[in-house]
Amino acid sequence: MISENIHRIPHNCALKLQAVYGKLKTAEKKAADFILQNPDAIFGLSIVEFAERAGCSEATIVRLSKRIGYEGYPELPRSPPCSTTTTFAPTIHRWR
């Protein structure tokens, strides 16, 4: 799994990808790897283009999208990315 680009992936998507990555089938890992290696690319790709570039089927893209909590592929590129400061940095609240 590529983590250097993870801050550019929608927060919810990144967390779920990390949680399920080890359980993904080979084709689903290809799609997940494509997202992790090219996080900005998914925002401009149709599902057909995504599948071609990731080396998997359109059905695999839909299955992966559902597995990480989306209703289907169209929701995935619509997820807003988080800033690098909020993605994995813990928030510390001081109570007074």
Describe this structure in words.
It contains five helices and no strands. It is mostly helical and 96 residues long. The chain has a domain of 55 residues: Arc Repressor Mutant, subunit A. The relative contact order is 0.19.
Strand content: under 5%
Oligomer: single chain
The beta-strand count equals 0
CATH topology of the domain at 25-79, which one? Arc Repressor Mutant, subunit A
Judged by helices, strands and strand pairing, the structural class is: mainly alpha
Task: Give the overall shape, derived from the CA principal axes.
Answer: globular
Task: Indicate the low-confidence ranges by residue numbers.
Answer: 81-96
Largest β sheet strand count, sense and barrel closure: none
Euclidean distance between termini CA atoms: 41 Å
**Radius of gyration from the alpha-carbon trace, in angstroms:** 14 Å
Fill in the keyword field for this structure.
single chain; 96 residues; mainly alpha; Arc Repressor Mutant, subunit A; 5 helices; 46% helix; globular; disordered C terminus
